Task: structure prediction
Amino acid sequence: MTKPMPAGRRAEDVRHQYEVEKALAAKLRAAPAEERRHLYAQVYDEMFRLCPDHPQLVRKRDPSADAAKIERQLTILRNYVRPEHTYLEIGPGDCALTVAMARIAHRCIAVDVSTEVTRHAHWPDNMELIISDGSSIPVPSGSVDVAYSNQLMEHLHPDDAGTQLVNIVAALKPGGLYLCCTPNRLSGPHDISGPFDEVATGFHLREYTIRETMDLFRRAGFRRFGGSVVVRGRFYRHPLAPLLPVEAVLGALPRGLCQAIADSRWPRLLLGSISSQSSNHRYGRLTPRQRGCPAFCSMTPAIPSAKIRWALALGCESYRDTEYVSSA
Result:
């Protein structure tokens, strides 16, 4: 069972992007680790050159098209980022959100693998774009107050995702925070291959379930997990454990039936998107103003003097228009 074509784009343009992206993604999947360090930037730059109607390039030409999405993310991030903070965004795309955050934070750093989307852009004086190899976070250790990524982890080679998590934790200051959203595999594919394939074959090199993401974070040092759900704008805490058998049942169904159920309203609400938050004990329990919603359970990583908080980001309507509830 495949997904419908994206609205507002010609079918031939979508197919062209799919064919380009699938071929480039196959190179990334097959490449050894050392080659991937340079290949991420090359394949993304090539895709943007070959697909001039790519949505990220279109949004760059028309900033108003993305204004509502940016404002939703700002609503969440304002609860965490203070004027004295250093803010890090990983996989920022056109950097529109990072530019907006530069009006809030003391310093903003965007880390990406490609300069094609941001070519000829002009940054605020307190913002910097750093090109990475896909898994490294090339900032000084312990220099970041708040790190954020959205729809990023699924773009990494599975072998690189855990490495990046370790590097993000290393980049955080004591008391630092990491917010991460990634779509759930059961309702995918969530990349350009959605209308054509039953499993992601584009630049979503791997999409994850809740259990798979928990396992990945656990290997990076995370230990205890919790979640939240947003219903009509209100946040509620819940454990993740009850959702694991739901995923197991859905995963045992035929692929088409599994996707249809997982992508329907209420399962999508519960399984929509996974997010994590890490914070050191120096901040202690965040106040309602600081956190914007009820606190999540803490977990202790295999890293000294740090606490990690985990949240399941729920209320995701679709991968194109995500309601971010990762600010637990």
In short: The longest helix spans residues 11-30. The chain has eleven helices and ten strands. Confidence is low (pLDDT under 50) at residues 277-328.
